[in-house]
């Protein structure tokens, strides 16, 4: 049976909601979604903020290259991506080195928690490090937003502060933080909504971890 840290999980999740804005602002790549149209402008959600952007204009490092009503093509950091209307946010602004790094450095945040903005299968998500969790854990709301197919999962169970709960176990194609990517990572989908994705040991076990002053350093194992 998978395990979710119980002694501090409620406290961590409560604090996590307040950390979301700071996480988005600190992300190295821009989180961008195409939400709608404002006349001849695209309504883009850039790092959590709604912005009306005209074709050819650049806002917060994101340039709108093309707009056809159902899709918006944006460019950031020399990389072009196509966004679907109403689709989930993606990380824009990568310089091509994503996935090739070997070290993650996370500063301590509010309440002594380590947080990071990252991506699951290319889609932007906020992470909260939880060394007491057996696997990555996310709410059903996040899994739905990421388009994770329940048909690809298996039934499982987890122990929480409220006892055993029915969950689904799924394999994530890739999990990225900064320029570091881990492939084929096991994750657990909880039945309830969760404000952040818990970064558990199915990801953390790929790293040597140590604290350095007020930072957590993760060095990828060979």
Automatic annotation (TrEMBL):
The keyword Signal applies. One of its GO terms (molecular function) is aspartic-type endopeptidase activity. Keywords: Hydrolase, Protease, Signal. Gene3D superfamilies: Acid Proteases. InterPro entries: Aspartic_peptidase_AS, Clan_AA_Asp_peptidase_C, Peptidase_aspartic_dom_sf, Retropepsin-like_bacterial. It comes from the Bacteria. One of its GO terms (biological process) is proteolysis. The keyword Protease applies. Residues 1-29 form the signal peptide. This is Retroviral-like aspartic protease family protein. It comes from Scleromatobacter humisilvae.
């Amino acid at each position: 049976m998978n395990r979710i840290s119980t002694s501090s999980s409620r406290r961590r999740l409560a604090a996590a909601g307040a950390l979301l804005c700071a996480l988005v602002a600190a992300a190295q790549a821009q989180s961008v979604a195409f939400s709608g149209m404002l006349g001849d402008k695209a309504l883009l959600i850039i790092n959590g903020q709604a912005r009306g952007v005209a074709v050819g204009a650049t806002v917060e490092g994101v340039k709108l290259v093309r707009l056809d009503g159902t899709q918006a093509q944006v460019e950031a950091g020399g990389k072009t991506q196509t966004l679907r209307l109403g689709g989930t946010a993606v990380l824009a602004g990568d310089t091509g080195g994503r996935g090739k790094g070997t070290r993650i450095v996370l500063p301590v945040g509010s309440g002594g928690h380590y947080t990071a903005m990252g991506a699951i299968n290319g889609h932007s998500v906020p992470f909260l490090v939880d060394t007491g969790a057996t696997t990555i854990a996310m709410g059903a709301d996040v899994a739905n937003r990421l388009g994770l197919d329940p048909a690809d999962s298996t039934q499982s169970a987890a122990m929480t502060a409220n006892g055993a709960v029915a969950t689904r176990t799924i394999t994530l194609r890739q999990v990225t933080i900064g320029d570091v990517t881990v492939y084929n990572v096991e994750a657990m989908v909880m039945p309830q909504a969760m404000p952040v994705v818990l970064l558990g040991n199915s990801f953390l076990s790929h790293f040597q971890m140590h604290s350095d002053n007020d930072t957590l350093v993760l060095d990828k194992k060979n």
